[in-house]
Amino acid sequence: MEPAVHNLLENSARIRPDKVALVQGDLRITYRQANTRANRVAGWLIDEGVLPGERVVLLLKNGIEYLAGYYGILKAGAVAVPLNCDLRVDALRELLADLHAVAVICGSEGEQLLNGIDSDLFGIRLLLIKDASGSRTPRGARVFAWDEVVTDADLPDHGLATNASALAGIIYTSGSTGAPKGVMLSHRNIVSNTCSIIQYLGLNENDVQMVVLPFFYVMGKSLLNTHVAVGGTVVVNNAFAYSAPVIRQMAQEGVTGFSGVPSTYAYLLHRSPLAAFRDKLPALRYCTQAGGHMAREIKQRLMEVLPPHTRLYIMYGATEAAARLTYVEPEMLVEKIDSIGRAIPGVTVRVLDEKGEEVAEGEIGELVASGANIMLGYWRDEIATGRVLDANGYHTGDMGYRDGDGYLYVTGRKDHLLKVGGHRLDPQEIEDALMATGELLEVAVLGVDDHLLGKKLVAIAVSLQENPSDKVLLSRCLSRLPRHKIPSEIRFVAALPKYASGKIDRAACLEAPPLAGPCCSGRQGD
After folding, report:
1. Counting C-beta atoms within 10 Å of the first and last residue's C-beta, which end of the chain has fewer, N or C?
2. 131: left (phi over 0), alpha (psi -120 to 50) or beta
3. Could you tell me the CA-to-CA distances from 222 to 6, 228, 261, 438 in Å, in that order?
4. Left if phi > 0, otherwise alpha if psi is -120 to 50, otherwise beta: which for 13?
């Protein structure tokens, strides 16, 4: 019988019961303790009548409660739905209306978020709260205290038979290409991708992963599952905004792996003591990056600043793929620095034209993936599912090509192209050129309505300079881009707005407050 996701924890608890599974500050939890607490959550859900396939929401920060809650939900045969604790109340209402969840497991932050929500409207009948504040909770729900339900008293695995094709989790996309969609992942989807990642990263029980990405984000979930599966250790740090303590903890805990999205590494390079700690990270075996395109300049700088023994993996994936689709082997990164690599074990990625035919080497088409990791579909949205899933596999929406060595390259999103002055432009190309000037920490290029051009290009940028100049930046771009691709306007801001995953919230960028000082107008009216 194929393993279920919660079997990953059960197996490690059986083989390495006294091994540390999770570190959070001074707290250290062994695999035996983690599995016992997950069993307690599962027993509570079953005793309270939660049925297999019913949805249970997790509103928790990274930590032992999340680990126990996540695997406990799966042990009970229910569906784990992790949500962001920083959601707005109206956004939470929309998701709860979509889910019809029967229970919520939360901490004090989630409890505050639930204030004023009428559970009768959404079907919530159970609340399990860690560190309850005594705030008003949803009307109609029965409330339980975490510390009374979840103890370290030994409790055997429930052993519920779980079909590998059964729905394990629903992960909502960030909404960067439209309204958030609930990606349905089966046990098979998650376990197959977990095994592939373990294989190409060479993970084992000696690995110690520093996690700064939220577990409700698909990449964070992947970090948890892969390290639990091999009996490694997960070090949780929920304060990446203060990057110096994160780097120091990596040295103290002997961290072997670090993972981030492009903005994570931009901030590590320019606003953390990473370079100063280069000789203090002897255990750091590898770093991985996913979560979107990362500029060539950041990759090159990372290879210079990271310890010489640290291997850098550039990866590509999607929530719809249970996380991972391709990777570039570290030894090929210099030669294939602009590539997203080749498919991971058990996955096939082809470049197809609009008719579903594979295109020739070097020709542009859409990247389409297939494998056991590809989602079941979008929750309660057959139309959206039909747009991306067909007999060929999962249509990523990314355009790209394959080179003569079989390495894949993304040239842009087919739904992100901008039409400016009669030209079809890809924002990624322009962002890369702006980053190549060495003047910026990060940038987003957007199309803004213009009465002459229809659309004009506006760059929202975070400068590395104290007194940034749009004229200097634009002049440096002229050697890299034709004039029709030069932004009409550059707006300098203190930081780009982001989703909790660290991805840039492009829709919110135009609302970011500008830096105080002269207006940076670029070549408006040109």
Report:
1. N
2. left
3. 13, 10, 13, 32
4. alpha
For the chain, which domains are there? 5-162 (3.40.50.980), 190-413 (3.40.50.12780), 418-509 (3.30.300.30)
Please name the helix (run of DSSP H) or strand (run of DSSP E) that holds residue 222, with its range, or none. Answer: helix 218-230
Q: Which secondary structure element, helix H or strand E, spans residue 491, and what is its range?
A: strand 489-492
- Residue 174 structure tokens: 């960030």
pLDDT value at position 158? Answer: 62
Q: Are 400 and 428 in contact (CB under 8 A)?
A: no
Strand partners, 351: 367
Strands (E), 11-141: 20-24, 27-30, 55-59, 79-82, 103-106, 126-129
CA distance 26 to 291: 30
Burial of residue 304 (number of CB atoms within 10 Å: 0-12, 13-18, 19+): exposed
pLDDT in tens, 4-18: 999 999 999 999 999
pLDDT (tens digit, 9 = 90+) per residue, 220-236?
Answer: 999 999 999 999 999 99
Question: Which is more confident, 108 or 232?
Answer: 232
Q: Is 338 exposed, middle or buried (0-12, 13-18, 19+ CB in 10 A)?
A: middle
Place of tokens 């780009």: 496
Helix (H), strand (E) at residue 463: strand 454-463
Q: How far is the C-alpha of 492 from the C-alpha of 393, rounded, in Å?
A: 41
Report which of 186, 237, 216 is spatially closest to residue 92, judged by C-alpha positions.
216
Share of the chain above pLDDT 90, in %: 72
Q: For 321-358, how does the pLDDT look when each residue is reduced to its tens digit (9 = 90+)?
A: 999 999 999 999 999 999 999 999 999 999 999 999 99
Bridge partners for 22 per DSSP: 29, 234
CA distances for 518 relative to 470, 490, 491, angstroms: 10, 12, 10
275: three-class secondary structure by DSSP = helix
Among the listed ranges 71-75, 373-377, 450-454, 487-491, which one has the minimum average pLDDT value? 450-454
Overall average pLDDT of the 272-280 stretch: 92
Q: What token pair was written down for 375?
A: 């989602």
Residue closest to 461 by CA, chosen among 514, 417, 526, 517: 514
How much is the pTM? 0.88
Q: Which of 118-127, 297-306, 366-375, 391-400 has the lowest mean pLDDT?
A: 118-127
Sheet containing 103-106: order of strands: 142-145, 126-129, 103-106, 55-59, 79-82, 167-172, 182-186, 377-378
Least confident interval from 196-205, 297-306, 497-506:
497-506
Q: What is the largest CA-CA distance in the chain?
A: 72
Strand stretches in 308-453, DSSP E: 311-318, 323-328, 342-343, 347-352, 365-371, 377-378, 389-390, 393-402, 408-413, 418-420, 423-425, 440-450
d(C-alpha 499, C-alpha 504), whole Å: 6
Burial class (CB in 10 A: 0-12, 13-18, 19+), 201: buried
Does residue 422 carry a pLDDT above 70?
Answer: no
Res 71: pLDDT: 97
